[in-house]
Known about the structure:
Largest sheet: none
Order of helices and strands: HHHHH
Helix content: over 70%
Number of helices: 5
Structural class: mainly alpha
Shape: elongated
Number of domains: 1
Radius of gyration: 19 Å
Amino acid sequence: MATRASHRTGNRTEAQRGTAGLIVFAGIMMIMAGVFQAIQGLVALVNGDFYAVGQEYTFELDVTSWGWIHLILGAMVAAAGYFLFQAAIWARTVAVIVACLSIIANFMWLPYYALWGAIVITLDVLVIWAVTAHGRDVLTTMGGKR
């Protein structure tokens, strides 16, 4: 019986390590996606002709406006990714909110750069899953603060 109890404890520790790995994955992905999104915004601000607009679209904005949106949102996503490493509940909550905003912005950005928008949407969905999958385990594994 004693070996079963230690085995269970060992499994729980391994599961908690996996959870911490998910949060690290989410943080790294958010930092990378945020930096790339900010660069995308800078490109739109510096060279408005870089992005070609296809067909008419419901969410049509000036490329300069999209540049500012992506620059600000990219900085927010990268900052939220950084604060995920602090293992605070508020950081996970902010990360989910900012990832949702990024999904909406990139959905609206699809006519300008469809492939990149779809990639960022997919990464944001993975980040939301990673951050919300095992919230309680993060507090015990990484010593998070409320």
